Amino acid sequence: MNDAIAIEAAGREVVITNPHKIFFPRAGHTKLDLVNYYAAAAEGALRGINARPIVLKRYVNGADEEPFFQKRAPDKHPDWVETVELRFPSGRTAREIVVRDAAQLLWIVNLGCIDLNPHPVRADDLDHPDELRVDLDPGPGVGWNDVTRVALIVKDVLDDCGLRGWPKTSGSRGIHVNVRIERRWSFDQVRRAALALAREVERRAPELATSKWWKEERHGVFLDYNQNAKDRTVASAWSVRPTTDARVSMPLDWSEVAECDPAAFTLATAPARFAERGDASAGIDDSAGSLDRLLELSKEQEAAGLGDAPWPPNYKKQRGEPPRVAPSRQKQPLITVAKAERKEDALAGLERWKARHPEAAASLQVDDVLVDAMRGRSSTWTRIRLNLRHVPEGQRPSEEERDPDYDPWRRVRAPKTRSSS
Predict the structure, then answer these.
(1) Angle (deg, nearest 10), helices 42-49 and 102-110
(2) Which residues, in sequence order, are bridge partners of residue 132?
(3) Element housing 5 (H / E)
(4) Is the predicted pLDDT of residue 331 greater than 70, yes or no?
(5) What 3-state class would DSSP assign to 86?
(6) Burial per residue of 47-83, b for 16 or more beta-carbon CB atoms within 10 angstroms, e otherwise
(7) CA dist 360 → 345, 390, 394, 395, 412 (Å)
(8) What are 198-206's contacts with CB under 8 Å, separation 24+?
(9) What is the DSSP string of 279-315?
(10) Beta carbons within 10 angstroms of residue 14's beta carbon
(11) Nearest Cα residue to 238 out of 148, 155, 176
């Protein structure tokens, strides 16, 4: 199967190994299909990642298998592949890949990168983001119509603040709105502006939107302000996502948002849209705006008693941050039932718990089951917790040994230098 081929891009030959390896088993798409997609949509895909350091999220065995995250550029890479050194909140540093042309893009796709995950900074200024990212994440049972309604409220808030948002489907269940900004603010200031926006959207549509960090406090569509914290990345426009149908994160015109069907945009269909209509986000680099109004709004919210909000758990405690303890730990009964390397194994453990405790399981509501994607050293793992708030006190099981009980730090596996990707 390792009948490598060479593809010409940006004046270079890029070697594609194992081109006929199946990357999307249900759709039948191969690695070469993925490469050909990115070659066809390179102009749009490069707009979202150009000159940015990028985290390599490598699906070396295809979309159905777990990826591993590789921040550091492979030791062996062509001399025409650029790198830049980043410093992370942990204090560690890494030289990451920087993509500027189609040849470099196809080279990382050959490594098994299905979606593209760039930082919101350019390689020539790693301290000042030029993009604020609005990530609309629907909770369990929330329909697409509610996601689009919240997206349009985001547009209204951005318009009121003198900013232009560029919407795209996330390629999953949500919508992303990217906002080009002048490179004048730190990561912390951009995050604070995103938090102010999230709270304003929640104020305008409290029945639809939430800015609450803790899952047990959320409802509707969550505006994930922490996607703007340093070291966070989001799949960029025109990225293929690791879904069964090889769905694409598609840039949209605002007039399309209310009626679009995210399932219509796939690896198979997106190139034709690009050829016929071009890139809906083509003007994004010419629309850099100011965060001044959003930061003024943040000060108004703080004066009204809304200070900082929780940061992700792997960040150091911030001044003014509220207690980094889930409300359920303070006032609601929460237990962990499963920790697994694979999501399906964790869900199987949940079903075994339900079989052991049928009365308690019958009382659980949809949002009482908290399925958390946890980041390990180089890959994600899954934790499942249960909020027993709806279970009568006399029927609440005690916390048991987790089944399964995966420890992501038990042994650190360094990714192999060479793979079958």
Answers:
(1) 90
(2) 179
(3) strand 5-9
(4) no
(5) strand
(6) bbbbbbbbbbbbbbbbbeeebbbbbbbbeeeeeebbb
(7) 21, 9, 10, 6, 37
(8) 198/134, 198/223, 198/224, 198/225, 199/301, 199/306, 200/157, 200/297, 200/301, 201/150, 201/153, 201/154, 201/157, 204/153, 204/156, 204/157, 205/149, 205/150, 205/153
(9) -TTTTGGG--B--HHHHHHHHHHHHTT----PPPTTS
(10) 21
(11) 176
Helix (H, G, I), strand (E, B) or coil at 251: strand
Q: Determine the length of the chain.
A: 421
| Residues 256-305: tens digit of each pLDDT | 999 999 999 999 999 999 999 999 999 999 999 999 999 999 999 999 98
Model confidence at 1: pLDDT above 60? no
Dist. CA 143–CA 268, nearest whole Å: 25
Res 19 pLDDT > 80: yes
- Of 350, 339, 411, 353, which Cα lies nearest the Cα of 381? 339
- Find the distance separating the first CA and the last CA of the chain, reported in whole Å: 11
Read off φ and ψ for residue 86, nearest 5 degrees. -110, 150
List the alpha helices (DSSP H) in 161-215. Answer: 187-204
| 166-184 per-position pLDDT tens digit | 999 999 999 999 999 999 9
- Between helix 42-49 and helix 31-40 the angle, nearest 10°, is 80
Task: Enumerate residues 6+ apart whose C-beta is below 8 A from 196.
Answer: 294, 295, 297, 298, 301
Looking up tokens 């009948």, which residue turns up? 3
Residue with structure tokens 């994160």?
A: 249
**Type of residue numbered 134:** V
